[in-house]
Amino acid sequence: MHCYRHPDVETGIRCTRCEKPICPDCMVSASVGFQCPDCVRGGSGTGHAPDANQPRTLAGGRVAADGRLVTKILIAVNLALFLAVQVAGDRFTDELVMIGFAYNPVLGEVVGVADGEWYRLLTSAFLHQDVAHFVFNMLGLWIIGGIVEPELGRIRYAALCLLSGLSGSALVYLLDAPNQASLGASGIVYGLIGSWVVLARRRRYDMRPVLLFVAISLVLTFARPGVSWEAHIGGLVAGAVLTYALVHAPRARRALVQYGACGLLLLIDLGMVLGRTVALT
Q1: Of 128, 164, 228, 232, which one is the catalytic site residue?
Q2: CB atoms within 10 A of CB 48
Q3: What is the pLDDT of residues 201-260, one digit of tens each?
Q4: What would the 3-class secondary structure string for the chain be?
Q5: How far apart (Å, rounded) are the C-alpha atoms in residues 210 and 194?
Q6: Is 48 annotated as catalytic?
Q7: In sequence order, which residues have a C-beta less than 8 Å from that of residue 105 and are 6 or more positions away?
Q8: All domains of the chain, ordered by start, with CATH?
Q9: What pTM was computed for the model?
């Protein structure tokens, strides 16, 4: 049998009221067995889950009318900073770009994450100077974000984007030259690519076009000069690992597993940053 709401997901469970097949993501615990969301919503059952009438995403988040709201906000932030860079110039960029530890002759001072400017780990993930770079990243954010956000829900999707961007910057900080500046939303975009792979596998979609897209993206990462491959790989791995935890968390302990996965990833990033800072200072 296949779930009546998710035709690509096999199941052996039926709703105790209407007997429609339901997958684990659609099951609502009842006094006897499980019921489907339609029966609970229609008042024909006795489900005991809070907010049972509210449809849920694959990761347990609430289904929103606008499945791209967070994506739109992220693009708006990137656009605002891009316009600020065009108006204010290099001085504005120098304050926000990702850099480990260096002397800046423009500012006349030592700058970088190792000097206590940890905010650069995130601000650099929303910063662009080149028009082509900005357009490419925003297209990726819009297209792939439009796939991922409805599957995770707004809060989990926002956490995924921020942690993917942070993980990309942390790996740049750990492996790149301390005076090498980098910027761009590529860490977030590649985090979404990693998330898309996990979601496609979870939904049992044909993985061949997805894996082909990932392979082409990685080839472009290492073939083009001047590309921060560390940000791409850091974001890709973080996005895939975090999404796996979000969509495979046991229903009974879903919140605990999901919060724990986010916290663990944040601790790993923090460990990389602290280790590199000690080495540089």
Answers
A1: 232
A2: 12
A3: 988 888 898 999 999 999 988 888 888 899 999 999 999 999 999 999 988 888 999 999
A4: CECCCCCCCECCEECCCCCCEECCCCCEECCCCEECHHHHHCCCCCCCCCCCCCCECCCCCECCCCCCHHHHHHHHHHHHHHHHHHHHCHHHHHHHCECCCEEECCCCEEECHHHCCCCHHHHHHHCCCCHHHHHHHHHHHHHHHHHHHHHHCHHHHHHHHHHHHHHHHHHHHHHCCCCCCECCCHHHHHHHHHHHHHHHHHCCCCHHHHHHHHHHHHHHHHHCCCCCHHHHHHHHHHHHHHHHHHHHCCHHHHHHHHHHHHHHHHHHHHHHHHHHHHHHC
A5: 10
A6: no
A7: none
A8: 1-55 (no CATH), 69-280 (1.20.1540.10)
A9: 0.80
Catalytic choice (164, 186, 195, 228): 186
Tokens of 202: 């979870």
